[in-house]
Design goal:
Length: 206
Amino acid sequence: MDLTTVPRRVDPRVPVRHGEGDKHRLGSIGGLAALSLDALSSVAYGPEAIVLVLVAAGTSALGIGEVPGRPHPSTGLVIVPVGGINKVTEYALAAALSMGGEVLAVSVHLDADLACRFQEEWEQWDPGVRLEVLQSPHRSLVHPILDYILELQEGDRQIAVLIPEVEPRARRYRILQNQRGLLLATILRSRTDVLVCTLPYRLKSR
C-alpha cells in the first residue's frame, strides 16, 4: 500500500466511483508529517515504559513495602592508609580504634629499603595496630591499596577505609594538600563496596 494514502471507511453497499480515492491521497509533505508524528509518539512513550520497568525492578530488589529482618552485626575491619609516623597518623588510628573491630594500617612505598625502614620505625613506635607494607613497582600509591582491599573484600566482612586529610588553616592550600586522599576515596567508591570515610585533621594556628 502507498504510505501516502490514507485509508477511509468503505461501505460495501455503496460502489466507489472511479477516481474518488484520489481525494483522500496525501501529498509528500502531508505524508511526511503523519509519519513524523507516529515516530515521535514511539519515542515519547518508549522511555516512560522503560522507567516503569526499572522502578518495578528496583522496588522488588529493595523490598519496598516489606518488613525486613533484624540486622546482624558482622566482623568489621577498619583500614587506615598512613604515609608516616606523625600526629596525623596517631589521630587517625585513635579514631579507627574508637570505631570498634580490627584496625589495620596500610602504607605504600616505592623503594624496598624505605619500606623495611618504615616497618622498623613502626615496631619501635608500637601503636598497638598492625602495619601492612605494600610495595609499588609501578610508582603508584593508590592502586596497591585498591588491589589489597579487593582481596580482603571477599566474604561478608564489613570493611571501612578511614582516610586522614590534613586541612591547613588557609583554604587556598586545602586543594593541594588533599589531592591524594581525594583520588583514593574516589577510586574506592567506584571500584569497591567498602565504606569510605574521610577524617579531617585541622592544623591549629599558633
